[in-house]
Design a protein that fits this description.
Blueprint: E1 3-9, E2 23-28, E3 33-37, H1 43-46, H2 61-67, H3 80-85, E4 97-99, H4 105-108, E5 120-123, H5 124-137, E6 146-148, E7 153-155, E8 161-163, E9 170-172, E10 175-178, E11 183-186, E12 189-195, E13 204-210, E14 213-217, H6 228-240, E15 245-249, H7 261-272, E16 278-281, H8 287-299, E17 303-306, H9 308-317, E18 331-334, H10 350-354, E19 368-369, H11 382-385, E20 390-391, E21 394-395, E22 399-401, H12 403-408, E23 413-416, H13 422-429, E24 436-439, H14 447-462, E25 470-471, E26 479-480, H15 493-500, E27 508-512, H16 519-524, E28 529-531, E29 539-541
């Protein structure tokens, strides 16, 4: 009995691996079942050819992706409209199923290329995250829950040809959702999902019951977030069920990194206390990190300013997993002026201002405008806030902040700062002396990210906010080019070594999603049998 495995992304060779972009193909001969573990974008590889916002055009996407090895190119699951457009025959029922570990782009970005009737398995919360992401980014960009046909041709009412549009172009994906600790079938293989601590909800590890024995898959995993107990329970299950093969991500075991999410909150609070304007750059969908920023803002008497997109995520969860409530007095949506700059201009009617904003942003125009002191509601909105609980002298309410507010009261806010809005925000706020910018996301690991870091520093210098290289505020042995307060979503070297010390030689470790996979057999798991996959090369579990 054997299971065939091939990695098309998220692996490299013995010396150099790949961080993310996981595309792992499994075929159980005995169970007659094949599945793809994740179908992520390969950020390390893709950035060699493309930089945001550039990507292949839809009619070229498949040919270019296959030629550049951006995605696996498994014909059985490629979307029909792209296939037809390049003259391929399509049809039949796809045998290959897809299992998603968590909703990060390097693990599910390739769903956009998958046909709508391919069976996809993901945690129900991962589906919620994927749907919001799709909703915010436009129908054609991130097709995680629905496939939007872009190239099929139909007849219009006059009998002329046209591309299919509107609801006719929308095809819902065949998604099987599961909950924590649920057991479900992937083809003829039984699989159990275990929630694990990562940087966003809906992240899972799995145990598959195959003809080669129990196979464990870590997904992206950590022990220093707010759900450490979930990771520990998963590791206990791997041991209790005597997993024979353990696919384990080793993203950042090659350097020491320390700290917890609570440490992030406390250190950011320490850095912004006594400052005037304070801003933080962080991963946009990391709701654990957003919670840490909210804690820091509250500890320093500030209001956390989030982007409209982040507020949409918060509105969906609204207190779940300990995330901030959207009517908390220490949180507000930052709604800057857009396009024609008509926000809060008394000489223009509201509907003219609304036209500047995306349809999903317009709800925030009706939220209460933040005001210093009592935070009195707009009379037109008073009925929305009647009877709401008082806290700290301020009514709990859904509030928005403008750049005019931040410019007038810079020490009252902690601003979450998207890179693509830095210049616009700084230009309008004009940060005064004693302002600070903090990076709370990973430092660069690709050339494109290094260029972006250079641009960030140039912007900070231009606005008088650059304070030079700094020791990492949670791992002082590392010097960063700017203030950095960040913990990763992954295990460090010591933690990996401690995990593997619990396993015996009956378990084989298969390394993936690791920049330096040779660290496993040479150090952290040297007492175990270790397999380091080569990308595109098949190996057997038997």
């Amino acid at each position: 009995m054997a299971v065939e495995c091939t990695f098309y992304g998220g692996a490299g060779d013995y010396k150099d691996g790949e961080l993310g972009g996981v595309q792992g193909m499994f075929y159980d001969r005995n169970a007659l079942t094949s599945f793809l573990l994740d179908c992520g974008q390969r950020p390390d590889h893709t950035s060699q050819y493309y930089g945001f916002p550039y990507s292949p055009k839809s009619f070229q996407y498949l040919a270019i992706s296959e030629f550049l090895n951006l995605y696996s190119g498994l014909e059985d699951i490629l979307r029909h409209d792209y296939q037809r457009h390049r003259g391929m025959q399509v049809g039949g029922t796809p045998e290959l199923e897809i299992v998603i570990t968590h909703p990060h782009y390097d693990h599910m970005g390739g769903l956009t290329l998958a046909r709508h009737d391919a069976k996809v398995h993901m945690h129900r919360v991962a589906k919620r995250m994927g749907y919001i992401w799709q909703y915010l980014s436009g129908k054609s960009l991130n097709q995680f829950v629905d496939l939007i046909d872009q190239l099929s041709v139909v007849n219009n009412n006059e009998g002329n040809k046209k591309f299919v549009t509107g609801l006719k172009a929308v095809m819902g994906r065949d998604i099987n959702t599961f909950g924590d600790y649920d057991t479900f079938k992937v083809g003829n293989i039984e699989c159990t999902a275990y929630p694990v601590d990562h940087s966003l909800p809906g992240s899972c590890g799995f145990i598959f019951d195959t003809s080669a024995g129990k196979i464990g898959v870590s997904g992206d995993i950590r022990l220093r977030g707010r759900r450490r107990a979930e990771t520990e329970r998963f590791i206990d299950a791997l041991l209790e069920q005597k997993v024979r093969y353990l696919f384990w991500e080793g993203s950042l075991l090659h350097f020491d990194h320390n700290g917890t999410e609570d440490d992030v909150a406390m250190k950011v609070a320490e850095l912004v206390r006594g400052r005037t304007f304070a801003s933080v750059a962080m991963p946009p969908r990391d709701l654990d990190r957003l919670t840490s920023m909210h804690m820091a803002a509250k500890a320093t008497g500030r209001t956390l300013c989030v982007t409209p997109a982040q507020m949409v995520y918060l509105k969906e969860f609204d207190g779940e997993y300990g995330y901030p409530l959207i009517d908390d007095p220490n949180i507000a949506v930052l709604l800057p002026r857009k396009r024609k700059g008509l926000l809060d201009r008394e000489d223009f009617p509201d509907d003219m201002a609304e036209s500047d904003y995306y349809y999903w942003e317009r709800q925030f125009l009706r939220w209460q405008r933040w005001s210093e002191g009592a935070k009195k509601s707009d009379p037109r909105q008073m009925k929305l806030f009647e009877g709401l609980e008082m806290e700290g002298g301020n009514k709990k309410c859904r509030q928005r902040v403008t750049l005019e507010d931040i410019s007038k009261y810079p020490d009252k806010f902690l601003v979450l700062m998207p890179f693509n809005n830095m210049i616009e925000i700084f230009e309008e706020v004009r940060p005064p002396a004693n302002s600070i910018f903090i990076r709370s996301h990973p430092g660069p690991w690709t050339k494109e990210m290094e260029i972006q870091e250079d641009r960030q520093i140039n912007i900070l210098k231009r606005f008088g906010m650059y304070e030079g290289p700094q020791p990492d505020h949670l791992t002082p042995s590392i010097v960063q080019r700017m203030h950095q307060v960040h913990i990763t979503g992954h295990l460090n070297r010591r933690e990996n070594r401690e995990v593997f010390s619990r396993f015996g030689k009956e378990t084989t470790i298969v390394v993936y999603h690791a920049m330096h996979p040779n660290d496993f057999p040479e150090d952290v798991a040297k007492h175990l049998n270790v397999i380091v996959p080569n990308i595109g090369e098949q190996f057997l579990l038997e």
